[in-house]
Write a structure and sequence with these properties.
It is built from 27 helices and 2 strands. By secondary structure, the chain is mainly alpha-helical.
């Protein structure tokens, strides 16, 4: 038990280090007769004391480095060279120093001598995990569970593996087994609560169990911030945003460095209509991780809703800078750049959309062509649209619309073809691009007639609906300047 506590204390967030050296070694030496280094009792200084050596390791880790602690093994006499306790400690230190193969050699030798030593098997499983050897990791974990189905380390590792693979039901079972041995282990309880939280999307009863688990954690440790965070998530899932906001504020009060807490706080405040508070929350998140895209995306959305277009554009540019594969950010950037009459940025954004689009959405080629015209580059507009036309079905409405833009000449049957479309979204888009065509090449009244048809559909499920609203408004921003 002493060795197990020692390793558990060293193992934090997937790395080994001595967070509280005196606790670590007192745990390791539990139920042992240990004579302190600075004792007033008589000690034979000519002989090597294993207990004194362990305490010296403790002191070295507290004041020095892991390498300093490993160097102390040079003074271990030959008759203690094969001492199991000291070798387990050495292997743990080697792991913390990233000397995984050396640690593995020690542990394999110990395992050959004593195949049932759970502490050594746990170390082997951990080394395998660090080396990406999932086969051996699972082998060692299964060995531990065969010895003791309630082994905490093995059950937690299996639970985490299942959780990462979104098998929350199986993860839940492993966490429950771990709790048989350690019913108040807050990290295991938190894992169980998380599993129930995700299972709650299909089984609402699990939400209650998750809530109960998180509250149990807080009864024992009122400063466990992640529990407050998940209580907030549970409340938000039930549309109780005020309660959700209050919970995550408690998490933030405990840990003001957690990016996700501020993201959630912003979302809850936004749903409450507290937009200034939401913006501030996401601004705080950005100060924590300035090169991560998510807070910029949320903040851009609120800026857009508040018609703070310049700020929204700036944030969307940050989104695509830090996450170049964020498809919808390019679309939003393109739309807002149209409002700013920044045709180059709009075109480049829609080009990105066109590159990533898997649905053959004709909106992007039409917008790219339009932007080229607005940039005064008629040759590029025709060259680009010609390449797209070659790939389209000549009998399709997409071909007919892009052909009109390419040729700069109207096609009489086009309005009738649009009117005959069954798909409302498609019909709305085509009316918009017909209106945009007339607005771009002359014929503002006909353009407005087509925009009015789009707006009358009351179906803002395509981004062109918003552009039609702008064009019909007093600040007609996308007409020829």
């Amino acid at each position: 038990m002493g060795k197990l506590k020692f390793i558990a204390a060293l193992c934090v967030c997937g790395t080994f280090f001595c967070a509280d050296a005196s606790f670590v070694f007192s745990a390791f030496c539990a139920d042992r007769t240990v004579v302190p280094v600075n004792t007033t009792l008589a000690v034979d200084t000519a002989s090597f004391s294993k207990n004194d050596f362990i305490l010296k390791l403790q002191q070295t880790l507290a004041s020095g480095t892991v390498k300093d602690a490993l160097a102390l093994y040079d003074e271990v006499p030959e008759n203690f060279a094969e001492d199991e306790d000291l070798l387990v400690l050495k292997a743990s230190l080697l792991i913390s120093d990233n000397q995984l193969n050396n640690a593995k050699t020690i542990c394999l030798d110990l395992n050959r001598k004593n195949p049932s030593d759970a502490t050594v098997i746990e170390l082997l499983a951990y080394i395998a995990k660090l080396q990406g050897d999932s086969g051996n990791q699972n082998k060692y974990l299964k060995t531990l569970l065969a010895q003791d189905q309630y082994n905490v380390t093995a059950n937690v590792e299996m639970a985490q593996s299942m959780f990462e693979n979104k098998n929350y039901k199986q993860a839940r079972l492993y966490y429950q087994k771990a709790l048989v041995r350690e019913p108040d282990n807050e990290d295991v309880l938190f894992g169980l609560g998380q599993a129930d939280y995700f299972l709650g999307s299909k089984d609402p009863s699990k939400d209650k169990e998750a809530e109960s688990t998180f509250k149990k954690i807080l009864e024992n440790n009122p400063d466990y911030a992640p529990a407050y965070s998940y209580l907030g998530k549970l409340a938000a899932a039930d549309n109780r945003y005020k309660i959700a906001s209050d919970y995550v504020k408690q998490a933030i009060a405990i840990d003001q460095t957690n990016y996700n807490y501020f993201i959630d706080y912003g979302m809850y405040e936004s749903n409450l209509g507290h937009y200034d508070a939401a913006i501030q929350a996401w601004t705080d998140a950005i100060s924590i991780q300035p090169k991560y895209f998510l807070a910029y995306a949320y903040r851009a959305g609120v800026y857009d809703e508040q018609n703070q277009i310049d700020k929204a554009v700036s944030d969307y540019k940050s989104v695509v800078a830090y996450n170049p594969n964020y498809y919808f950010a390019y679309e939003s950037l393109g739309i807002l750049s149209l409002k700013q009459c920044d045709w180059k940025t709009a075109r480049e954004s829609f080009e990105k959309c066109y590159e990533m689009d898997k649905t053959s959405n004709i909106s992007y080629p039409l917008m790219i062509t339009y932007c080229y015209y607005k940039e005064g580059n008629k040759l590029k507009a025709k060259s680009f649209s010609d390449k797209v036309l070659r790939k389209l079905d000549r009998n399709s409405i997409d071909y007919a619309m892009l052909r009109v833009w390419h040729d700069e000449s109207g096609e009489m049957p086009l309005p009738q073809k649009i009117s005959a479309l069954d798909n409302a979204n498609k019909k709305g888009k085509m009316y918009f691009y017909l209106g945009l065509y007339y607005e771009n090449f002359g014929g503002v009244e006909i353009a407005r007639e087509n925009y009015a048809k789009v707006i009358s559909m009351h179906n803002p499920m395509f981004f062109e609906y918003r552009l039609a609203e702008w064009s019909m408004g007093s600040d007609n921003v996308i007409k020829v300047q």
